[in-house]
Amino acid sequence: MKRPILLPPLTWSAHGVCARYRLMHATAYFSYPYFRCRFRNVDGKVFFEKTTGSQRKSGFVYQNGPESLAFLGGWSVNDEPQTSYGSENSVAGVLYKIGARRALILFPTSADRVEIYELVK
User: Fold this and answer.
1) Are 11 and 34 in contact (CB under 8 A)?
2) Which of 44, 45, 48, 80 is deepest in the core (most CB within 10 A)?
3) What integer pLDDT is reported at residue 26 of this predicted model?
4) Is 19 helix (H, G, I), strand (E, B) or coil?
């Protein structure tokens, strides 16, 4: 049995990628510059937040299985207050640790579109 994924409360850099897929082939792709984000402890739970850029996701990360974590949170723009899962701006995703210093978060945004954060320490 694999050990659960652990992400320490540290500051990370991330690279955002958006892709639109049709029949498993990317039909459109665009990339964002690296931005800052972090994992921190909030009330004994792991909390992720994108701390720079105009579109910011934030929320809690929960063990989803031996190889992934579930992200449940919300999005806000610029300096608006953070929102939570269950709000009008809810966001869900799946986080995969792909190396000692790398992880991916996948945010499906519609039936044929996904937003991907590549996280690096």
Assistant:
1) no
2) 48
3) 57
4) strand
